[in-house]
Each structure stands twice: as structure tokens, then as C-alpha cells.
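User: I'm putting together notes for a lab meeting next week and I want to include a structural view of one of the chains we've been expressing. I don't have a solved structure, so I'd like a prediction I can at least talk through. The sequence is below, exactly as it appears in our construct file.
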Amino acid sequence: MFSLLYSDPRFYLINKHAGVSFHREGEDDGLLDAVRAGLQDESMWPVHRLDRVTSGLILLARSSQVASQFGSAFAGHMVEKYYLALSDRKPQKKQGLIKGDMEKGRGGAWRLLPGVQNPAITQFFSFSVQPGLRLFLLRPRSGKTHQLRVAMKSQSAPILGDALYGGSPADRAYLHAYALRFTLDGEAFRFVCPPDQGALFVSTALQECLQREASAPWDLAWPKI
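Assistant: Thanks for the context. Below is the predicted structure for the 225-residue chain, given as C-alpha cells.
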């Protein structure tokens, strides 16, 4: 369900596996149950979440005080988050800004609207991995439900394996929480977690593209908001 990447007296950083729900579903353990059992530590507080289909980095505070600090940092957009996605379709544009209000549609899906009263904001770059496959580096600047999945669909490039938003069938939904940068108690942290699940994510072509284009995502000249 997960692997532990980093342990600090104030927080854990884990790599969530794709297909794992955050909370318990019926008799099936959720991610938090698995982490608490695996690390033999009941004292942890989630400070952000990932969809079931999404793999990658999740921070878990080890005290309510640290959880409050992280909560304020996330609310103030002071935690930089970077995601990877794959699509087998050509986007409307290769890089830029996706901005718009969102509303819930049918079947649990959301959709992007032209208004910007309380918009979801996503910056992105895309890179060719091989013919018919494109890597997207996504930086959400807001925290809306399904934001990145909706953003990709709005560019006519739904995430590969994301059936809810029209993605082509695949062995998984190719969305991964790739990198985090933040400051806690005056100490700067930067973490990068390349994906390790999914045939296309672990392919040589993808790994080479990732190393070449996005090994340090915070150093890129991101499109202006």
C-alpha cells in the first residue's frame, strides 16, 4: 500500500501506491490504517490527500501542532506540489496555464467552467516521451477535487488509464505526486519521488525523459498565473 521514504521527528513522508484509498472502505483497510500498522505509530495526522488512482508523495504530521503548521502552509499555498501524468493524446497546447471554476457533473466527475470566481489553477509543461505518448509536469496552485484530472481533460489529453475522464485503457491511471518543496520551522525540504508503478512509468524512455526535463521541477520557468 505504501513505502516509507523519509522519517522526521515532526512528520513522515510516504509513497502511496496507486489504487489505494485514503480511508477505510468497508472491511478493507485504508492508507492511514496501513501506515499506522506498518510504522507501529498511532500518532499521525494527514495534512493533504491523494485520489485513489493517484500514487506518490504524502506528508503525515506526527503531532497536532505540526499538522496545524502544515495546514496553514497548504492553505497559504506555501507547499509546492508537482505531479506527473501521461496521455496518449495531443494537448491543445504544449505548456501554459489552465484556469477556471469547477462544478460537479454526473457519475462523480467534475468539469471545468469558463468562469473564474473561485478557480482551479494549474500550470503545466508537456514533453514528448515517444510517438503517441506525452509526459505532463503539473503544478496545481489550488486544491480542488480532481483538479489535475479535469485540467488534463480540458486540454483534450485525458490521463492515460483514467476511465472517469475518458482516458484510454491502461494498467493504471498514470497520475503521480512527484515532488514537494516546503519549509518547516525554518528548515527547507525538497523531495522527489520518481514513479515505480505502471509499465509506462518505469519504461526506459520515460525515465530518460524525466531525468532530462524534470529532475528539478522547482528550477523551471513556470508559466505566469
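A couple of points you could mention at the meeting. Residues 64-75 form the longest helix (12 residues). The chain has one domain: 2-219.

User: Perfect, that's what I needed.
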